[in-house]
Automatic annotation (TrEMBL):
Protein keywords: ATP synthesis, CF(0), Hydrogen ion transport, Ion transport, Membrane, Mitochondrion, Transport
Keyword Ligase appears in the UniProt entry: no
The protein, known as: Mitochondrial ATP synthase subunit G protein
Recorded superkingdom: Eukaryota
Amino acid sequence: MASKLVQLQSKAAQTSQFVAKHGCSYYRQLLEQNKQYIQNPPTVEKCNLLSKQLFYTRLASIPGRYEAFWKELDSAKQLWKNRKELKVEEVGIAALFGLECFGWFCAGEIVGREFTFTGYYV
């Protein structure tokens, strides 16, 4: 166990040195590639304006998402009506998708409980 800890510490040190050496160049490269998205000057007013634009843009997209939701729901209802015509492959894919959703739910619960399997700390 101690040897694993030493290996982990050495890997962490190597990673830290790599980031310290190459982090600035990566940061500059990332900013250069995305300079068309940078607002100059970066003022509080500009940030407030952008946050309002984002909020109202998202608000304006609600009707389209609402319609898409009802289309998806109608599609699911249609599948349920015609469930006798479903192929085994389609049912298997749906079952695997449901199992994956359940697995992600369980993983989220475990992370939310601070990586305990038995319950919440009180």
